[in-house]
Amino acid sequence: MNWERYIKDFSIYLKLERGMSINTVKGYTRDLKKLSNWLEEHNIEENPGKITSQTIKDFNHNLATLVQPATQARTISSLKNFFLYLLLEDYRKDNPMDLVEAPRLGRKLPDTLSVEEIDSLIAAVDRSTAHGERNRVILETLYACGLRVSELVALKMSDLYFDEGVILVTGKGDKQRFVPIGDATIKLINFYIDEIRVHIPVQPNHTDTLFLNRRGRGLTRAMIFTIIQELKEGAGIKKKISPHTFRHSFATHLLENGADLRSIQLMLGHESITTTEIYVHVDRTYLKNVLEEFHPRSSY
Fold this sequence. Notes:
Layout: H1 3-16, H2 22-41, H3 53-64, H4 69-88, H5 115-123, H6 130-145, H7 149-153, E1 160-161, E2 166-170, E3 176-180, H8 183-196, H9 221-235, H10 243-256, H11 261-268, H12 273-279, H13 284-294
Antiparallel strand pairs: 1-2, 2-3
Helix pairs in contact: 1-2, 2-4, 5-9, 6-8, 6-10, 11-12
């Protein structure tokens, strides 16, 4: 049984039994092929059932010279999951990853935008065009609901439950959650639907897609990234930002205005509260103010 077959079986397991998204499965596959390609380049004939810990250590040392620590750590994580799967399926009796260490990574707090910076980005939108009006609604929705960009482009007309004040969001691993949406954002989306989208020649397989391009097809994540980069230049913002920055900012601003982490966790769709803590970027001044306001012995 060769590497290709093992990797294919593993990808099927991830999709069907672990419920992982296509993009996540592709990431695992890409990382595993790094190892199989390296073995082939070095004429090492060890299949997944027989590969030794020393061979993987050699691969890891080589990988460290080629990629950033974060990429190396992710690759090692993929390999650990792969060999755990092999143990589970009785393809191996031992785990060659037991003695393989990934680089230690410190937590990197994500960049966020202030409310004023978000306002300036939205103000930079050219609203004299139909797609400009659409872009404004896209930014407002990203920020108002804390969506991942993949969740935004996947939004459907049938996901809008405005009477209940929520939208149905499909996140990682096709897991769904209801996210509250404010009246101001509902009004903007309805404007887009009634005044902009109605004039677009919608392609047959995109009749339920909310945000469309000029040709009546769904937007891609890359398109959203490009829109934000162009607006960033117009707004004079120097930070390195992406669609995900709006998600970070959403969580940060909620926390700063008194929301609890558990509520933010549910809205973001995080399985673990620890993940939410990483996303929420608060400065020491804010935390000091919280302590002084709420701790009974902060002052006498």
